[in-house]
Every structure is written in C-alpha cells, then in structure tokens.
C-alpha cells in the first residue's frame, strides 16, 4: 500500500488512529532515546500504524531481540508485514488489550505506544494499561506518545512514575511520557 493509501486509512479510521498525520522522525527519535536497545530482548509496540515508529525500532533492534507490533487495522498490518519481513518482527492484527495472548509468559523490556487513549472508553484504557503493565519486566518501561498532557493522570493510575518531555517538531506537537 502506498503512502496515499495509508493516509486514506488514517483519515478513514480517525477514532482508532487518533492522528491527523503520521509521527515525525523527530518525534520517533525523541521516543526512542528512552530505549536501551543493547539490553532489550522483547519490545512491544502498540498501534503500529504506518510503521513510522516500527521502522525506528527495527533499525536499532538487536538481532537476538524480538519486536511484537499490535495493530487493529488489517490494511496497516498488511503494509507492515511487507515492509518488515524480519524473523524477529511479528505484526499482530489484534487489540492491545490482548497482549497476554502473544507474549507466552515472557516479560517485555519496553512497551512503546502511540495509541489514541483520548478516544477510548475508560474500561478499554484500563484494560490496555493493565495488560501493558503486567507484560513489563520489573525494570521495564511503558513509553507513550500523546497529544494531551492531561493523559499523564491516566498513566499515573497505573504506573508509579511518569516523566514527560515535549516536542514542537510534530503535527500536532506531542508529548512523550515515560512510565515506570
């Protein structure tokens, strides 16, 4: 699927994509500065979308590490499966609330998310964040891109520490929240 097809998918499903455009390279770079790729063995991405963040992760992923990408759009999944044929990258066409079905008792070092929590029901927000927290190792981190600083309160309900940074170099400007 070309970039125009991906944009059509983005705008057609605004309630699940939650974005008016794809994440900028600057935003992806800012998010990934919080990840220690040398020590990471399992990384989970929630909301793969067009693969902007996935591409950044894959470029730094250790050969013995694994990336699980959750995406509910079949079109986005098909596009990402073509773009990321690596054996250590698994594109999963399922909701993020079902992480536990796929990690087979393992613990992730990082859960990276660009999910549009502002559009989700309170129940779905709590289910996804509970599953993300359960799936993390003791020292693991949940890292979220979002457009509203108010979401920090939601993340504080599930994580004891939430650190925030901001970038103007994205449309719209965005926050990166790192949760432990």
TrEMBL record:
<dbReference type="InterPro" id="IPR041698">
    <property type="entry name" value="Methyltransf_25"/>
</dbReference>
<dbReference type="Pfam" id="PF13649">
    <property type="entry name" value="Methyltransf_25"/>
</dbReference>
<feature type="domain" description="Methyltransferase">
    <location>
        <begin position="43"/>
        <end position="140"/>
    </location>
</feature>
<protein>
    <submittedName>
        <fullName>Phospholipid N-methyltransferase</fullName>
    </submittedName>
</protein>
<dbReference type="InterPro" id="IPR029063">
    <property type="entry name" value="SAM-dependent_MTases_sf"/>
</dbReference>
């Amino acid at each position: 699927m070309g970039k125009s097809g991906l944009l059509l998918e983005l705008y057609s499903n605004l309630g699940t994509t939650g974005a008016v455009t794809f994440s900028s390279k600057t935003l992806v770079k800012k998010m990934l500065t919080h990840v220690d790729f040398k020590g990471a063995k399992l990384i989970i991405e929630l909301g793969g979308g067009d693969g902007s963040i996935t591409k950044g992760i894959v470029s730094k992923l250790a050969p013995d590490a694994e990336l699980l990408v959750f995406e509910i759009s079949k079109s986005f999944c098909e596009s990402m499966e073509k773009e990321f044929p690596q054996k250590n990258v698994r594109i999963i066409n399922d909701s993020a609330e079902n992480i536990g079905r796929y990690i087979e008792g393992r613990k992730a070092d990082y859960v990276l998310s660009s999910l549009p929590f502002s559009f989700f029901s309170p129940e779905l927000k709590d289910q996804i964040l509970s599953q993300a927290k359960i799936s993390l190792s003791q020292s693991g981190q949940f890292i979220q891109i979002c457009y509203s600083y108010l979401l920090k309160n939601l993340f504080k309900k599930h994580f004891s520490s939430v650190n925030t940074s901001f970038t103007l170099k994205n449309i719209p400007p965005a926050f990166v929240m790192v949760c432990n």
